[in-house]
Amino acid sequence: MFWLFGNCGDFPFSRCEAFAQNRIDDSMRISERGFAMVDRLLGQLSLADGLAASDETIFDLVSKELDWEAVRTLLGQRSGPGSGNTSYPAEALLRCLLLGMWHGLSDPALEAQIRDRLSFRRFAGFSLSDRTPDHSTLWRFREELTRDRLIDKVFEEINRQLEEKGLIVKRGTLVDATFLQARGRPPKQPKKGHQGPIKPSSDKDARWGKKGKKSTFGYKMHIGVDQAHTIIRRVEASDASVTDTEPADKLICGDEKAAYGDQAYYTHARHDRLAEANIKDRLMRRANRHHPQLPARQKLRNRLIAKVRAAVERPFAVFKERYGMRRMRFFNLATNRTQCILAACAYNLRTMIGVIHRPAERRA
How confident is the model over 230-254, as pLDDT tens digits? Predict the structure, then answer.
């Protein structure tokens, strides 16, 4: 048992040691005016952290496979110049938000889980002695990502690294959209003979949308995914009244060989734009007043496209069943858009691990 009381530097610490060292190296920088811009020091490991190290989890694989240095550079420093309370590093807070997304947690629930779960602490870079962020800190950081559009840059950087790993094949892009219910209740319908103003919804940006006979008050998430591994390449968010076809051109990247979508996405103008870009049109056709019945050839074509296009439903199922996104958590479009992009980041990282590492090599 001599090792227990010997030099702690000889003890084989857990996998977050490298991340902790990065946090120490980047914890303080000097601005041009000479003020110290300080982020809170995290991850200074002790003997207890080494003893508490557990088996490798999927979080450790994400930490290992992604180049977090590039993400950290994008996020930059959070503390302002001069003296005052130090801030949590942006990378640590981003990791916390990813944990919350993977487990479908609200900010208060995420605060409690980070404080209690060793695997959460290790992924976020907190040692056993570090104070962890509260729910208001997580909320403010999400607002920073929204205000500065930093989440867009993080999403692009993650996809750049996935492309370097060969996970984005560009054989085809699958486009689709789904309704997401608003956090607030819809405005009350006026009763017969009612006079005076109608009580509005607490969510000013949400709108009514309809698909078939079902109406939804809320938002709509639009995605374009790579055909090979359903890596999400493009994300857009809108209120529910926006039709599927309106943001469709933004979902097509331009470097794929084909674009797949259901009947809602086909227009003559889009067909011409795809042909001009040398992208195969794999958008399903639908009947119209000039052609009330599709010919048998078009029906067969639609069935073949539907088999390929169906893979785009997988991310939506993950968002709603695992990430708790059947109903949005926030009361405005801007923050809900950030949440949608954050969900896409979380989904892509988990998909990366699923493709690179066999199930026997990881633990959920």
Answer: 999 999 999 999 999 999 999 999 9
Evaluate whether 82 touches 167 at the Cβ level (below 8 Å): no
Q: What is the pTM of this model?
A: 0.83
CATH T-level fold of 169-184+204-330: Nucleotidyltransferase; domain 5 (3.30.420)
Q: Where are the domains of the chain?
A: 56-78+86-148, 169-184+204-330
* Number of residues in the chain: 364
The CA distance from 178 to 237, in Å, is 10
* pLDDT surpassing 90 at residue 6: no
17, 166, 279, 302 from 309: Cα distances, Å: 43, 21, 16, 10
Say how many C-beta atoms besides its own lie within 10 A of residue 67's C-beta.
13
**Biggest distance spanned by C-alpha atoms of the chain:** 87
Instruction: Report how far residue 72's alpha carbon sits from residue 76's, in angstroms, rounded to the nearest whole number.
Output: 6
CB atoms within 10 A of CB 294: 17
